[in-house]
Amino acid sequence: MAVDLGTALENLTFAFESLVNLVAAISYVMGLYFIFRGIGMYKVFATQTMASANKGELAGPMVFMIVGAVLMYFPSTLDTSIQTLFGHDTKGISAAEEMIGYADLNNSGEHWKEISNVLIKYMKLIGFIAFLRGWTILSKMGHSGAQPGSVGKGIVHIIAGVLLINIVDTINMLAQTFGITT
Predict the structure, then answer these.
(1) pLDDT digits (tens, 9 = 90+) for 17-44
(2) Which of 7, 69, 88, 165 is 20 to 30 Å from 48 by CA-CA measure?
(3) How far apart are CA 116 and CA 14, in angstroms?
(4) CA 104 to CA 108: how far, in whole Å?
């Protein structure tokens, strides 16, 4: 059974929607986990006695609760981040249409448009995962023995994720900045 390029690209497009929904579901579950972990850490902190040698800190549980709240509102946080960096929402924009502004070459334009559209969708998926990973890295700051540079790594993941989610505008912004014309 031979599968042509159109069928393969259509299957990849259908898989993309499911994968984005999976990332959002993982974000909700991780958000709940971090919130409950923060509450549990506060409970341990509240039940400590004066004779206890293990002193707690207030910042650790607060970090978990804040990151948990951000992950619970993953779509809203993402929309706000994109609005902050690019000044507009990306809903309804056909990335391939915007990115490919030149004429078809040897009638291969339709296949190129399909391939680039799938490629851009999966770049957005990588951006979603990087955004989620950035907040997970920042949640590690709630531990007392966090590695140095974790805040920087987390922020870089978050910003890079937002840039990948809006990859077409990122490419256009870089092209305008460096004077590259398409």
Answers:
(1) 888 889 889 999 999 999 999 998 888 8
(2) 69
(3) 15
(4) 6
* C-alpha span between 124 and 158 (Å, rounded): 13
Q: Distance between CA atoms of 97 and 93, rounded to whole angstroms?
A: 8
- pLDDT tens across 87-135, in order? 765 553 343 334 333 334 444 566 677 778 788 888 888 999 999 999 9
Q: 171 and 164 in contact (C-beta within 8 Å)?
A: no
Domains of the chain (ranges plus CATH)?
5-178 (1.20.120)
Contact 162, 127 (CB under 8 A): yes
What is this structure's pTM?
Answer: 0.75
Report how far residue 43's alpha carbon sits from residue 125's, in angstroms, rounded to the nearest whole number: 37
Closest CA to 66 of 39, 47, 46, 85: 39
Rounded distance, CA 46 to CA 34, Å?
18
Is it the case that residue 86 has pLDDT exceeding 90?
no
In one-letter notation, the amino acid at residue 43 is K
